[in-house]
């Protein structure tokens, strides 16, 4: 199980790096710098990891590129929201041996990452349509 979790965490880290390349205008931002990317590590307590995950998610949602089109704006805000769930699940995997919760966390990671990819593909298709 640890090998599977390690692979999921490694893939999640790669995916998170790709997330940082989104662009567009910000909404609701106060000009504050975004928190650093979430890093799941036992160097921090579980509480601290959850705080970090929430801070990154909140910043991502506040900085989502909005254009006033409800479908677009929903997708751009849901991507960091789903990534927050992935980050929280990664934190849990570091701190629990409960098999039921480990399976739940692994499922959250897999499903939310899949949904992020679906939303990114939707966004790419609809952004390309707007440019034509």
From TrEMBL:
It holds the Pfam family DUF305. Keywords: Signal. It comes from the Bacteria. InterPro entries: DUF305_CopM-like, Ferritin-like. Residues 71-130 form the DUF305 domain. Residues 1-18 form the signal peptide. This is Uncharacterized protein (DUF305 family). The lineage of its organism: Bacteria, Pseudomonadati, Pseudomonadota, Betaproteobacteria, Burkholderiales.
């Amino acid at each position: 199980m640890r090998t599977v979790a390690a692979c999921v965490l490694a893939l999640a880290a790669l995916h998170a790096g790709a997330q940082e390349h989104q662009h567009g205008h910000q909404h609701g931002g106060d000009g504050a710098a975004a928190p650093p990317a979430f890093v799941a590590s036992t160097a921090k307590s579980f509480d601290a990891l959850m705080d970090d995950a929430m801070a990154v998610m909140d910043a991502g949602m506040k900085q989502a590129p909005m254009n006033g089109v409800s479908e677009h704006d929903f997708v751009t805000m849901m991507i960091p929201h789903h990534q927050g769930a992935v980050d929280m699940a990664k934190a849990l995997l570091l701190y629990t041996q409960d098999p039921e919760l480990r399976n739940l966390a692994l499922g959250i990671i897999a499903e939310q990452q899949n949904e992020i990819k679906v939303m990114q593909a939707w966004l790419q298709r609809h952004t390309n349509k707007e440019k034509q």
